[in-house]
Amino acid sequence: MADCWHDVLIMGGGLSGLTLALQLKQAMPELDIKVLERRLGPAPLAAHKVGESSVEIGAHYFSETLGLRAHLDREHLRKFGFRFFFSEGESDLSSVTELGASRYLSTPSWQIDRGIFENHLALQATLQGIQVEEGAAVKRIELDKDLGHEVEVECPDGAGGLHRHALRAKWIVDASGRASLLKRKLDLAEGNGHRANAVWFRLDTRLDIDNWANDPEWRQRCDPAARWMSTNHLCGAGYWLWLIPLSSGAHSVGIVADADLHPLEGMNTFDKAMAWIAEHQPCVHKVLQNQRDTLMDFAFFRDFSHGCKQVFSPERWAITGDAGMFLDPFYSPGSDFIAISNTYITKLIQHDRAGESLRMPALFYGEVLQSFYQSTLSLYEGQYPLFGSPRVMPTKVLWDYTYYWGVLCLLFFQDRLADRAALQELHAPLMRARELNSGIQALLRQWGQATDLSAAQPGDGPRRDDNPPCMLDQASLPWFAELNASLRDQLDDVGFRERAHKNIAQLEQLASEIVGQALRDAPSLRAQLPPGLTPVDTHALLFKMAA
After folding, report:
1. Which DSSP helix (H) or strand (E) runs through 504?
2. What pTM was estimated for this model as a whole?
3. Which CATH architecture does the domain made up of 196-302 adopt?
């Protein structure tokens, strides 16, 4: 028999598990919650886990839903947005096209030191009466909706040995990350066809990218002159290299690459990665070469992208975070999907506490989450060759942001994720937005192929006439900055529905402008235009921003 009974047992005390515990406790203070964490002791700073960059949904979840804004402002760095340099083979960043905002946009996000953050989450959980058991390795799981799920745990006995004990809970949640305890047990793993790899390392030093070029005008294009606080992407065909600062003073460096264009075997050690960087991003290598002695860690993932057949069950189990599904580090969607999954799990447990049937809510929430997953997956599938294109990639980024802010962020910020009536009423326009996104992603791939971008060999930089030394300033687009600022508007039911229709109409207009631009650039695309896309004769996209 189990030693004790809990309302909710969460397997995994990392980001997804601890945030879920806090969200559940805030929503239902009476819950008895226990978190099982395999690691013993506090998380190390900086050299801990990848996933430092947050975007709007995840940032809003941490700061507002969980009430952690003061901690984020005090202990982490305010992120200066995403920034891109089309710098394949270049040694001078001021000589290439830069894509990013010249000033902070309204809705905040942060560069998060996962060690500092997870230690704070664990402290807050303990202070709120959540039991966090460290050094707990899950050895056996028996699912039983009626009698309670049973988990056998092995942990230190305090005398240098190990002992086992059993726990029973009404609800069990897998937040175990890549261990994927429930997914493995229930055979729920699902591939998604997106083949990419990642390597990353942390250096115990600050990489001040603002001083990597001698051009004073280039330095002053941003206000504040703090490019180093952005998530900086240094791009080439088939890959992107990230630079992310951490509040502890360290810097995170990573390479994410198409598995066929840049095989993992060419970068799966620190020395190999440095040689690869020397070939593809000499502007980065000449700085990192002098910082080798500050190396803190090195890691890699092969085929990191994965799906999950089911994450919510009326049998009172659920899966959240990387334990279920993971898409890609690009656009940092990991914390977003944690926020969405945790919100649905919280709603399910509230339904259960109210004595309601879980069959329909579990099915509905699972279908909506899978819809978000599939629509976001389309941003990555077959798109990695475009990272080498200062012609096509800026348009893709503009579209992807607009789709994300206009649809997903609207639903999350307005607390409509579980509003079945509103989602059913907006079903047709939301499906139209998804179809538009699918069509635009296909068009972007075709546009890249029509301009021979996808045929570019690793090491080939963009053509010089495609990569002028300029800044494409996203903050100079009034409608774009306004869309970002509007995320925090407080809307009633009527206002929410009006905003949804307005945002989707904006997507329609933007899609037409993108089609028109692509056809002007590559007229042959007209014969293979994806269904549902029509051009308009305007030229109102990012390329006006360089003027």
Report:
1. helix 493-521
2. 0.95
3. 2-Layer Sandwich (3.30)
Q: Give per-residue pLDDT as tens, 266-310.
A: 999 999 999 999 999 999 999 999 999 999 999 999 999 999 999
**Nearest CA among 456, 470, 447, 450 for reference residue 546:** 470
Domain boundaries, the chain: 196-302, 383-547
Spatial distance between the Cα atoms of 82 and 482, rounded to a whole number of angstroms: 17
**SS3 state of residue 47:** coil
Q: Is the pLDDT of residue 16 over 70?
A: yes
Tokens of 53: 């960059």
Nearest-angstrom CA–CA distance, 189 and 43 = 28
In our burial notation (b when 16+ CB lie closer than 10 A, e otherwise), range 448-484 reads bbbbebbebebeebbeeebbebbbbbbbbbeebbebb
Q: How many of the other CB atoms lie within 10 Å of CB of 268?
A: 16
What would the 3-class secondary structure string for 104-124 be? CCCCCCEECCHHHHHHHHHHH
Alpha-carbon distances, residue 476 vs 99, 101, 113 (angstroms): 12, 8, 30
Using DSSP bridges, classify how beta strands 162-174 and 149-156 pair: parallel, antiparallel or unpaired: antiparallel
Residue 371's CB: how many other CB atoms inside 10 A?
A: 14
- For residue 254, the number of C-alpha atoms closer than 13 Å in the C-beta half-sphere is 25
* CA-based torsion, 508, 510, 516, 521: positive or negative: negative
State the residue for tokens 């013993």. Answer: 40
Residues in the chain: 547
User: Quick one: DSSP state of residue 185?
Assistant: H
Contact 388, 332 (CB under 8 A): no
